[in-house]
Every structure is written in C-alpha cells, then in structure tokens.
Amino acid sequence: MTFTSPAIEFLRQKDISFSLFVQPDGLTMLDEIARFRGQRVSQIVRSLVFRYSEKKYALVLAQAGRNVNWKSLRAVLRVRRIAMATPEEVFQVTGYVVGAVSPFGLAQNLPVLVDQKILREEVVSTGSGILNVAIIIRVDNLLRALDDYQLVEV
C-alpha cells in the first residue's frame, strides 16, 4: 500500500531517507505504541502546537511520555501566556489532524522548537500526516529536513 501526505512528499522531495510504519487502529497507550513500533517511548516525537499570541503559533517537538515545561516554553517564546492550540487551530496551521501532526510539510510557516532531549536518540518516529502511520527517521535526517528550527530545553 502506498501512502502520501504533504509530510511524506516533503521528505521525498528533499531526498531525506525515512520509512513508514503502519500500526493497527485501537492502540492508545504510549508503551503499546512504542512496543509495536519496536521503539522505546523516548523515541516517539510528539509535534505539539502552542498558541502564544492571538494568531501566533509554534510547533514544539518533544519526546512522548514527558511533559513540556510551560515556564521554559514561555521564556523561549518571550511571552507571559501560552495555550495548547485547539484541534481546529492545529488543522488550520499545520494541515494535519491532532494525532497525525508532522513537523514536515506544514500548511503555514511556524517556528519549530526542538527539545534537546530528542537528540539523545539515534532514530525516532514522528507523525506522517496520516493517522496510524508514523515516519521512522534518523534524528540527523529529521534536523536536516527542517527548514529552520531552534534547539531548546522544554
């Protein structure tokens, strides 16, 4: 079966090496998802969208199983208030539904903040733009594929 999404096409156009992993419906627990992918939870990268101004958003790449430190994130963004984007806002700014958000092929140009903890892993999985399909990618290729990003501790 062939899958395509803006994220997958973005990586193909940039000639970035990756693979796709299809998981069955119904997996919801992080440890189950990681085990099914043959990974540890720390290898799953969540793409989280935060609103930090009325119409400003940032994409945070963070390890699954860890909470984002909101105080640190506010300091990085130099704002006093942040909020998680609503599912509608996530779709508007990324082009993806919650649960399938990828850092690649975004609908809008967003600041991308990469938590440094991700760099501890050699290979990670990210959203592909398609529910239940993950992009498996080397961390160095993930960073190479991002047009612009900032390494942060959140």
Task: Describe the 3D structure.
With 154 residues, the chain is of the alpha/beta class. It has one domain (6-152): Alpha-Beta Complex (YbaK protein), CATH 3.90.960. Helix content is 25%, strand content 27%. The chain has 5 helices and 8 strands; from the N terminus they run αβαββαβαβββαβ. It has helices at 6-13, 30-37, 70-77, 87-94, 139-145, and strands at 19-22, 45-53, 56-63, 83-84, 112-115, 123-127, 133-138, 150-152. The strands form 2 sheets. Strands 4-2-3-5-8 form a 5-stranded mixed β-sheet, covered by helices on one side. Strand 6 (123-127) and strand 7 form a beta hairpin. The radius of gyration is 15 Å and the shape is globular. The chain starts with 5 loop residues before the first helix and ends with a strand. The mean pLDDT is 95.
How are the SSEs ordered, and which strands pair?
Blueprint (H helix, E strand, L loop, with lengths): L5 H8 L5 E4 L7 H8 L7 E9 L2 E8 L6 H8 L5 E2 L2 H8 L17 E4 L7 E5 L5 E6 H7 L4 E3 L2
Parallel strand pairs: 3-5, 5-8
Antiparallel strand pairs: 1-7, 2-3, 2-4, 6-7
Any key phrases for this structure?
alpha/beta; globular; 27% strand; YbaK protein; YbaK/aa-tRNA-synth-assoc-dom; 5 helices; 154 residues; five-stranded mixed beta sheet; 8 strands
**Unreliable runs, pLDDT <50, ≥5 residues?**
none
CATH architectural name: Alpha-Beta Complex
What is the helix tally?
5
State which percent range the strand residues make up.
25-35%
Mean pLDDT: 95
Return the CATH class: Alpha Beta
Biggest sheet architecture: 5 strands, mixed
Would you report the number of β strands? 8
- What is the C-alpha radius of gyration, as a whole number of Å? 15 Å
Structural class: alpha/beta
CATH topology: YbaK protein
User: What is the CATH superfamily label?
Assistant: YbaK/aminoacyl-tRNA synthetase-associated domain
Classify the helix fraction into a percent range: 25-40%
Our count of domains comes out at: 1
Distance between the termini: 37 Å
Largest sheet, spatial ordering of strands: 4-2-3-5-8
Principal-axes shape call: globular
